[in-house]
Write a structure and sequence with these properties.
By secondary structure, this protein is α/β, with parallel strands linked by helices. The protein has one domain: 3-Layer(aba) Sandwich (Rossmann fold), CATH 3.40.50. Helix content is 39%, strand content 16%. The chain has ten helices and 13 strands. Helix 5 links the parallel strand 5 and strand 6. The termini are far apart.
Length: 298
């Protein structure tokens, strides 16, 4: 495997899951990265030169790099599309010319939020700039002959204490005397990042091709998920924060968020032989890890 952009949330989980299967990972810029990670500027650094120094040519490359902040994409559509669309497609073309199978990581943001349990064959009508960018790459790739994989992911969470994770953010907020404003009308199928990494590994190992949804087993509102976190936190200590319910329209975003991007993942379950873990299980681990971490820091 070649992990293009392996320093992020999912990239690190893939590295832990795949271990010796990873031929190389890449990073861009001077941020935190593993010393073994290779510098790579998508669309500028030739993939051929990137893999030239590797002992073996990778069979598969997972494209993880992207400008993924939704508001940033809305505010700077042209700048973000340069990486998210133009340079991503360029890298896909390079990989295919080299005989390396591309695995494109897409998003549930390709849906407009009008219905629940979206399937792979359902119409896609993104209302977010980020979703439109992901869809443009999807359409380019799915028009090509195999081999390729497109994986639509939901909101990913960690089962340990991770500052990048929404669950950790909520635990830290519950510790403070403050209000937590939370939408009751936004639905999704969140999944543990470790489960998604393992699912990707299995799909590749089994030679799966095509488009797959990798959503979690439960369709939850954002408020439902926060309630699970608050309930589990209460098993350890009283929460200091106050949860205030609201609607999506009450929150200030550059672009209106879709109401329901829940994914039906029956297709991937048929390959894996099991659903991804339910949030009730993941939340218990995440809250316990954060509470323990906070006690150690204290």
């Amino acid at each position: 495997m070649l992990l293009l952009g392996g320093a992020g949330f999912l990239g690190q989980a893939l590295r832990r899951s795949m271990r010796d299967l990873v031929a190389a990972t890449t990073h861009h810029g001077s941020g935190q990265h593993d010393q073994q990670s290779l510098p790579f500027d998508a669309g500028i650094t030739p993939v051929n030169s990137l893999i030239a120094g590797l002992p073996t040519k990778p069979a598969v490359a997972i494209l993880l790099f992207a400008k993924s902040r939704i508001d940033e994409c809305a505010q700077h559509p042209s700048d973000t599309a340069l990486l998210n669309v133009t340079r991503t497609i360029h890298v896909i073309d390079e990989l295919r010319d080299l005989g390396i199978m591309p695995v494109f990581v897409s998003s549930d943001a390709v849906f407009d939020g009008a219905k629940a349990w979206n399937r792979e064959e359902d119409p896609v009508r993104p209302i977010l700039t980020y979703g439109r960018q992901k869809l443009e790459v999807e359409r380019r790739l799915t028009a090509l002959p195999p081999p390729w994989l497109v994986l639509r992911l939901p909101k990913l969470v960690a089962e340990d204490c991770d500052a990048r994770c929404m669950l950790t953010g909520w635990v830290r907020a519950l510790e403070m005397d403050r209000e937590i404003l939370c939408a009751t009308d936004q639905y999704f199928t969140p999944a543990a990042v470790a489960d998604v990494a393992r699912a990707i590994e299995i799909l590749i190992a089994k030679g799966a091709q095509g488009l797959f949804h990798l959503g979690g087993a439960q369709r939850l509102s954002r408020r439902d998920l926060l309630s699970l976190v608050a309930e589990e936190y209460g098993r350890h200590r009283p929460a200091r924060a106050r949860i205030v319910d609201c609607l999506l329209k009450d929150l200030k975003f550059v672009e209106a968020r879709p109401h329901d991007t829940s994914l039906c993942s029956d297709r991937v379950v048929s390959v894996l032989g099991a659903e991804l873990r339910r949030m009730t299980t993941v939340v218990k681990s995440a809250v316990g890890a954060c509470v323990s971490n906070g006690a150690q820091e204290g």
